[in-house]
Design brief:
3 domains, mainly alpha
């Protein structure tokens, strides 16, 4: 029976070590993300850039205060009833603009970290499929995340992405 107790102690010790490493990795990743966000915010302020964020899976667009001003609206304008940013683009140009992501990937994929997993998603799945194939063919550990951003967020919150 002492061997069972020893095995249990060993198992608990290993679990504690893994939990500690996971917590440290999560803390380090959060610190890196906060630092990147602060750098991006500084860049946006310094360049007075106007930004929009397009959530492909929900097809929602949010606009920065500066972009609203650049479009001729007060910074505090409620944009919840505005159309998607892509609807401001001429219909003949919309697909081209949406596909800029893939062209940027082709031009700049070497800037991606080769030591990390890369999870890719998009609104429908076609662009993510092609982007994943492209990266895998170039030696990256890339996966197409079916289900869109909500699935990624659930995996990230569970600590399953690195």
């Amino acid at each position: 029976m002492p061997w069972a107790f020893a095995a249990l102690v060993l198992l608990l010790a290993a679990a504690l070590v893994l939990a500690h490493r996971s917590a440290r990795a999560t803390r380090d990743e959060r610190s890196r993300l906060i630092e990147q966000q602060q750098r991006a915010e500084l860049l946006v302020r310094a360049t007075q850039a106007g930004l929009f964020e397009w959530e492909a899976n929900s097809d929602r667009t949010s606009y920065s205060e500066r972009l609203k001003e650049m479009l001729g609206y007060p910074a505090d304008t409620d944009t919840s009833k505005w159309p998607l940013f892509f609807e401001f683009i001429h219909p003949e140009d919309r697909d081209r603009v949406r596909n800029l992501l893939l062209s940027q990937l082709r031009d700049r994929y070497t800037e991606l970290p080769t030591t990390r997993n890369i999870w890719i998603s998009c609104g429908v799945g076609q662009r993510a499929y092609y982007a994943t194939r492209f990266l895998v063919q170039h030696g990256y550990r890339a996966w197409n995340l079916s289900g869109g951003y909500a699935t990624y967020r659930a995996l990230r919150d569970a600590g399953l992405t690195t």
